[in-house]
Amino acid sequence: QVQLVESGGGLVQPGGSLRLSCAASGSIFTIYVMGWYRQAPGKQRELVAKMTSGGSTNYIDSVKGRFTISRDNLKNTVYLQMNSLKPEDTAVYYCNADSVVSATGVSNYWGKGTQVTVSS
Description:
61% strand; 11 strands; 7-stranded mixed β-sheet; 120 residues; 4-stranded antiparallel β-sheet; mainly beta; elongated
């Protein structure tokens, strides 16, 4: 069974920074795409950033220039460096691993989420 464990959320003032981490564990052969989604109260979950195993990235427009996604393929870990945070970035951030090739086949997995609150 593959599990994703997020860490690094918390409360930060506007303009501050946070770094989220997500580690995947289990009988994993490879993970093609790892990314971060977020869901604010009353809103739909949206993609924030994602990265392929080859290094290609995709960001939602509202975070371009402020957030940076990176990953360590050997550790099956993805990171999200968030700078210049704004109150509108407040949400629960979820890690996602897509096209995970493991001992049980190919699947998509989600973490339980970590709260990010940007407030003065």
